[in-house]
Amino acid sequence: MQKKSSMILFAHGARDPRWAAPFQRLQKMTQESLPDVRVELAFLEFMTPNLTDLVAQLVADGCEKVTVSPIFLGQGGHVLRDLPVMVDALRISYPTLELQQLEAAGEDPAVLQAIRDYCIRSVS
């Protein structure tokens, strides 16, 4: 039997709610591509839900496996220091939850190529 899985797209957050629009589009696109996985957004600050509250809700809903995908361009302080502390605390709170943290999205060569292609198109 397959575990009930979720992916959390984890972003920084901002005071202006319009900032979240591309992340909401990414969440919708990802959900459409992964119909058997619940895809949600969580934010480090300024916006809700935060990671802790979202994981609590996912666990309450019966989720057994969570993949946290940081939607950051680089492995800066938030991804290298803040996020691992949060993930470690979640592992302690939910010892039976299979919890995986990915690298920042911008560390993936395909993501960088997509951004490069975007930049190239602007001068063509």
UniProtKB/TrEMBL annotation:
SUPFAM superfamilies xref list: Chelatase
Pfam families: CbiX (PF01903)
UniProt entry keywords in alphabetical sequence: Lyase, Metal-binding
Molecular function GO labels: lyase activity; metal ion binding
Record's protein name: Cobalamin biosynthesis protein CbiX
Taxonomic source organism: Undibacterium piscinae
